[in-house]
Every structure is written in C-alpha cells, then in structure tokens.
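User: Just a sanity check before I run the rest of the batch. Below are the structure tokens for the first item. I only need the designed sequence back.
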C-alpha cells in the first residue's frame, strides 16, 4: 500500500469574474502551484495518482438540501451579473459557471480517497481540491466553500463502509469569537450532540502568532489522547502541501526550531478543550487533575465585527506565517533527506526477518583498533561476539550522524546490552550529536559517571519507582496497561522529547524489557518527530525477529500495529506520572497542560 494523490485539472476552471478584494485570494493557482511543487520535489511520482470523479447529486444530498444542490446546478447557465448578484447573498463567496462542476469534483475526490483508504488500496493520501468545503453549511455557501467535502466524505464512510464514529478536530483562529466567521459553534465547549457527543473537538486559538510548541502541545495533550482510545498564500501553501505529502509517504519530518514553550493563551485554550471533552474521554480524565472549564475562550455577548480573509490584519498574519515557513525551508536545506531511510545491523542472519525492500542491511563495522578502544572500559564487551556487535552498532551510528542514514536498528548480545548502550551514548555525543535523548526500556540504568551537562537526557521506562535525580535523568515504572503506556508516552516521554529538542534519539530495549511489540513500535515511531527522523533502536538478540521487523518498518514510515483494546491506566501509574510532571514541569515547559494561575 502506498499514498494516493487525488486531483483533476478541471478544478482550476472556476475563477473570479469581477473585482472583489475579499475573494481574489481563492484562485486556481492555489492548486497549480501546489501540484508544480510536488512535481519539482519528485513527490507526485511517488504517489498513486487518482483522477477525481464528480460526486453524484445523491452523494451531495448526504449533507446538503435538494433545494441547495438544485440552486448550484442552475448556476451553470447564469451570466456574470446574475452570478455576482447570487454570490452577494453569501459571505465571502464567488460563483462561476464552472463552480458546480468543480465543487462536485472536489467532493468526489474526497469520496475516492475514503474508498481507497478504507478498502486497503492505499495506506493514506491527499485530495488536492478546490473549491474548499469546510465552511459550507446544509443550504448555504460560505467562505469560498460550496459543498462540505469533509462532511460528505464522513457520511459516505459511515454509510458505505460501516464506520460507527468519526472524530472531528479543528484548530482555528478564533480570538474569543472576534475572528471570521465568528461562530459560537467554533468554541471549545461545542462538543457535538446526540450520538456524536464528544466527537467534535474545537481548539480555538485566541491570539495570533502560535508556534511549534503550541501545535505540538495540542497534539500531545488533546488530539493524540483522543485518537488512540487550508491556506491562501501560494508559496506557503505549495510548500505545506509538499511537506504533508512527504509525511504521508513516511519521510522523516524536519526538526522543530525555536523555543518549545507554549503561549499562555494556547494553554488556556487547551485547558478549556480538555475540560469540555473530559466527561466523554477517559484518557483526559486520567492525565492529571480534572481540568476546569473557564470562560476564557468564550465569545463575548453580541456578534463581534468580522475580520474576513481580505482584511489587512489577516494578510499580515499570512505574511508572518510565510516568514515562518521560509525559516522552515532554510532548515530543509540544512537537513537534506539522507540517501538511506532505514538500515539494520545484525550480528548474524535472522530467519523470519521480513524487511521492506528499501531497508538496507548494513554489513560494515568500525575499524578494529577504534572499536577496541571504545570497548576497553567495559568487561562485558571483551567477548568476540559482543565486540563484533559493538563495531556494527557504532558503524551504523556513524552513518546516521554523518547524514548517510536517517534511522536504524541493531542487535546486541544480552550480557553486553548495558555496556553497548553506554558506549553508543558517549560515541554519539563525541561524534556530532549536540543533544542526545536516550529512552532506555528495562533494566538499563544510567551510567553514574555520565556527565550531566545538559547535552544528554536519560529516560528510563521500567525503573523500580518514579524518580528524577536531576532534570536530565528521569525514571518511571513500566505501565501495566495499554492506557497507562499511552499516558506515559503522551504525557511524559514526548513532552520531554520535544522540550529537549534532540538531534539524535537512542531507543534501547534491554533484556526482559517487557514491552509488547506494538508498544515498542509506537514508541519508536513517535520519537521520529522530535529528532527529525534520527532514531537508533537497540534490541537484544533474544528479542523476536518480529520485533526487529516491526521496528524497521515503523522507522521506514509504516504505521505501527494496533495496540489492541484500550484499558484504563492503573492508579499507581497515574500517580507516578503526576509526581514526575510536577517535578519536571518548571524545566520542561511542554509538560504544561494549563496556563499558570
């Protein structure tokens, strides 16, 4: 299975036929520049191209009224003056003789993508469409949107493929209800109704200038806990589309830049969302004290003055976003994609190791004298088998550090697991890693003589008790349930990782680590984000071939296997997390889930 790209050139036909500064930003170039950039980057060629089809009027009727569909059908025969007059009946909308055809293609593209993913034809995909659809309502066009593509696709998924529930998540500029379209339904406490109660999640941003830390916090503290139980600036839009497709294809993300501390306003919004959703989601109830809903994000009385996309303030924000994207593109030039995405280093051929064709089996080793010098302080590395394994580990680590390989996994003999990890940490810090995060699972204690200089953060999952001897040395017991593991990863491991901003992550699964393969795979997959894809997983030789296979696959961009049924975190695991978060939050700001009092 691969990644689908759904598109049709006819969607560029609709365009503005009269002067309207508010609407001129919704133009055909929004699609053509994005597609051109995908082609320039070689990303289109890596996708399965699907030609969009028109949604039928019956499919449009899953969401829209027959009268509204008929009205839009009639616009195909209208002249420019009639189209302009009809457009004025809506807010920030223009109509064209091709609008009905384009809008049906946009909705049909979404339906095609749903069908392709849910039938297993592709793993994921992107529908590149216009006009957009997310603002349109049952019988009203709004904000450039004609037919609500996502809502139609969701209804289609339920009716054709038997999906029982759909989670709707939206983060958006809101400014306490003062930003267009100024809808009360966009606030945090709009959580759905009836059988959909708790499946509508609105995250309103109440100030401009939100950065990486704010969006990562939203993922860690709202979206991902729930998941586990468009733009108008042409250059920024096309670059964003490319990055999205790269992510769907499994390419490593760029490391995030800037201070990783959420804005106070963002934390207030997150607190309100968590409070509104907590009655419906166990995972939010267990991540610390129950949040309290405040009136911080609620819209003031009376309808505020709208600030539509054509206003100067909006354009200033778009310019600011474009500058931020330019900075990100500078990082792209500084961090080119390595030639090899994943390599594995094994001491001997393993029967049953089913690796993807693109994964490299690395045979190289560090020179003998250098390998022996690194092994000399450790008696456990004196045996030939351990020394050979160490040479392969350090050789592959070297290739990751010099940008030849993005990520990798290697096997170590059980008696030498702790010593190999110790050497790997020191080798990484002395050979180019500026900040190294080590996530050690099992009985792999931090070496007592490892310098606590802020360049390495050691997190042990599987310690006897929850403890933090320093801000850079944390130990937490291994959670006993799926819910406990997810809470540990989302509420502790990832916030620490994103706060620390490592340029290399070592994940060590020691002897008797006790982590099921799906949990180990999810841990490795999620840690690709903070380090820009540079993750090196060490497993002991007694681990199953399935573990080595699944680690290589997730580091190669494939989805981790299912964790199985969700089970609540044990009280002792929740208590351990609470203690560590309270201890570490003053230093690591991504642990915050609420604004300071």
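Assistant: Here's the designed sequence for the first item:
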């Amino acid at each position: 299975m691969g990644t689908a790209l759904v598109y049709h050139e006819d969607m560029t036909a609709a365009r503005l036929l009269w002067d309207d500064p508010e609407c001129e930003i919704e133009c055909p170039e929004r699609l053509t520049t994005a597609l051109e950039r995908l082609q320039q980057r070689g990303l289109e060629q890596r996708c399965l191209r699907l030609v969009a089809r028109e949604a039928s009027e019956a499919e449009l009727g899953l969401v829209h009224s027959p009268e509204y569909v008929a009205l839009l059908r009639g616009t195909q025969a209208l002249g420019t003056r009639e189209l302009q007059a009809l457009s004025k009946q809506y807010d920030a909308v223009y109509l064209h003789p091709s609008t009905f055809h384009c809008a049906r293609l946009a909705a049909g593209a979404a339906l095609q993508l749903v069908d392709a993913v849910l039938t297993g034809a592709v793993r994921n995909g992107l529908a590149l469409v216009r006009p957009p659809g997310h603002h349109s309502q049952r019988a009203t066009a709004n904000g450039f949107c004609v037919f609500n593509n996502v809502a139609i696709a969701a209804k289609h998924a339920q009716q054709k493929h038997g999906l029982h529930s759909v989670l709707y998540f939206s983060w958006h500029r809101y400014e306490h209800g003062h930003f267009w379209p100024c809808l009360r339904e966009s606030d945090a406490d709009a959580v759905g109704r009836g059988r959909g109660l708790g499946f509508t999640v609105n995250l309103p941003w109440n100030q401009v200038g939100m950065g990486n830390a704010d969006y990562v916090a939203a993922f860690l503290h709202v979206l991902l806990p729930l998941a586990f139980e468009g733009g108008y600036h042409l250059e920024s839009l096309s670059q964003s589309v490319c990055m999205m497709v790269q992510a769907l294809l499994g390419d490593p993300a760029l490391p995030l830049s800037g201070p990783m501390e959420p804005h106070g306003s963002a934390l207030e919004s997150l607190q309100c969302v968590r409070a509104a959703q907590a009655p419906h989601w166990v995972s939010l109830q267990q991540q610390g004290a129950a949040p309290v809903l405040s009136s911080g994000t609620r819209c003031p009385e009376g309808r505020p003055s709208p600030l539509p996309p054509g206003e100067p303030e909006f354009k200033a924000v778009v310019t600011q976003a474009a500058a931020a994207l330019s900075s990100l593109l500078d990082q792209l030039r500084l961090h080119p994609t390595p030639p090899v995405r994943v390599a594995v280093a094994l001491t001997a051929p393993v029967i049953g190791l089913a690796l993807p064709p693109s994964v490299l089996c690395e045979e190289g080793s560090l020179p003998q004298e250098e390998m022996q010098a690194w092994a000399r302080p450790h008696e456990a590395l004196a045996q030939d088998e351990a020394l050979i394994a160490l040479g392969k580990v350090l050789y592959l680590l070297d290739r990751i550090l010099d940008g030849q390989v993005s990520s990798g996994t290697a096997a170590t003999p059980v008696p030498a697991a702790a010593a190999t990890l110790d050497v790997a940490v020191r080798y990484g810090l002395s050979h180019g890693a500026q900040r190294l995060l080590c996530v050690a699972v099992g009985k792999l204690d931090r070496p007592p003589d490892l310098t606590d200089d802020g360049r390495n953060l050691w997190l042990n999952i599987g310690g006897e008790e929850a403890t933090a001897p320093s801000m850079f040395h944390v130990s937490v017991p291994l959670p006993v349930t799926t819910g406990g593991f997810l809470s540990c990863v989302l509420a502790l491991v990832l916030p620490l990782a994103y706060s620390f901003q490592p340029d290399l992550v070592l994940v060590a699964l020691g002897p008797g680590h006790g982590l099921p393969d799906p949990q180990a795979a999810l841990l490795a997959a999620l840690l690709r984000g903070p380090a820009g894809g540079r993750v090196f997983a060490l497993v002991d030789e007694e681990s199953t071939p399935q573990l080595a296979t699944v680690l290589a696959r997730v580091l190669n961009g494939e989805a981790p296997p299912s964790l199985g049924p969700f089970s609540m975190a044990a009280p002792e695991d929740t208590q351990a997390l609470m203690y560590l978060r309270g201890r570490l939050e003053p230093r690591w700001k991504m642990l915050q889930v609420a604004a300071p009092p």
